[in-house]
Amino acid sequence: MAGVRFAEAIPIRVEHTNLTGTMSEAVLSQEERPAPSAAHAAVVIPAAGRGVRLGPGAPKALRTLGGTPMLIHAVRAMAASRHVSLVVVVAPPEGVAEVRSLLDSHALPGGAPGGGRAGTDVLVVAGGETRQESVRLGLEALPAGHEVVLVHDAARPLVPVDTVDTVIEAVRDGAPAVVPALPPADTVKEVEPAAVAGVPEPVVATPERARLRAVQTPQGFDRTTLLRAHKEVDGEVTDDASMVERLGLRVVTVPGHEEAFKVTRPLDLVLAEAVLARRRRNDGF
Ligand code: C5P
Fold first, then answer.
1. In whole angstroms, what separates CA 251 from the centre of its chain?
2. Global pTM?
3. Which residues span the domain enclosing 115?
4. Best of 43, 52, 78, 153 to mutate for ligand 1, by most ligand atoms within 8 A of CB?
5. Residue 267 domain-assigned?
């Protein structure tokens, strides 16, 4: 990444509830921050992608769903868990200030920036060229403590809190890496990819569907394992758990959720709006 590094360039905003339950707000240096409880989880949200498959427009994380930016939904989904005490948002490098003001303007009364529970801190750092680099930059901003670290795509704004809690519990129970997963509805083929889209591609294999899982986020990790994976594993990957697999360590799945789908293509936006509308009808969400 060309340009600024988080620690020098971006002040850390901290919001916390004091013992009387009123909000206090301050901009503190990393050294001044109160030590987090190791039992609490931190979440890194990579949100620095352009989202080209969604069509032209704002970076994907800043597109709105039900009038609220996708990133805000994602932050709220993480902060809804009582086990999450820190969310690190990794913003497009040129959009850090915009993301910070967006989080500020979506704070709920008594809650953290972005609309999380009171007691959830939110940091914003600049992202990189690839998802992997963005996650690594988010990890570098983590203060000491937080033995459980989750990585959650901003592009999965509607993941239910139960899924978040299930992942955290599995890590606390001793799994070094945990991924929420669902059996695929479609049969999946391995092909020889064509150089040009739309050209017929030879099929080379049909993996047995019963053994396949489509994985989602948040993916959860023992902190030491995730830091090691990002330090030692090179090469293109599409999720963090596969980096842990490359270290030869055990990765397990827990049940995912159909509402944790990734908003990637225009039709996903239609589905996400419908899910939100149903939630609002059902529980005044
Ligand atoms: O491109 P893809 O859909 O796999 O992106 C997954 C997540 O990674 C998105 O939330 C996106 O904003 C993020 N990302 C990032 N930095 C990049 C590329 C993607 O934070 N350079």
1. 18
2. 0.86
3. 10-28+36-186+204-283
4. 153
5. yes
